[in-house]
Design brief:
The chain is an all-alpha fold and 122 residues long. It has helices spanning 2-25, 48-73, 79-90, 103-121. Helix 1 (2-25) runs antiparallel to helix 2. The two termini are 53 Å apart.
């Protein structure tokens, strides 16, 4: 799986560089690279503008496709999967707390409970 990720990442970087260079070469009026050499729009042929546009479209499609595939391959496992893995390794049942959604409140309540447990132990 690591080789596939590496190949996709290299292809992603190449596609990004080519897309940026291709967009920079194009002109706002649609003349493309032809206007850079003496103002003639036919320096690279009459259809150079459409070729540049089609190539840009293909590179944009490849950019999004590779981005989605890399995102799917790098997806983090779900919390339930991690809990099952911990249970399997430790052989114990992990208690699930109700998530209130406020991490600060949980930290304050958790630290006060641990302080109370230390005081009662002494």
């Amino acid at each position: 799986m690591g080789v596939v990720k590496t190949i996709l990442l290299v292809a992603f970087v190449i596609v990004c560089i080519l897309a940026v260079l291709l967009v920079l070469v194009q002109n706002d009026e649609g003349n493309g690279m032809g206007s850079a050499f003496g103002g003639q729009s036919t320096a690279f042929g009459a259809r150079s503008g459409s070729v540049l546009k089609k190539t840009t479209g293909v590179l944009v499609f490849l950019f999004f496709a590779i981005t989605i595939v890399i995102g799917i391959l790098n997806k983090a496992p779900a919390k339930e999967d991690l809990t099952k893995a911990v249970e399997a390794v430790q052989g114990t049942v992990v208690e699930e707390k109700a998530d209130s959604g406020n991490w600060l409140e949980e930290e304050v309540n958790g630290s006060s409970e641990s302080v109370q447990a230390e005081v009662s132990a002494q």
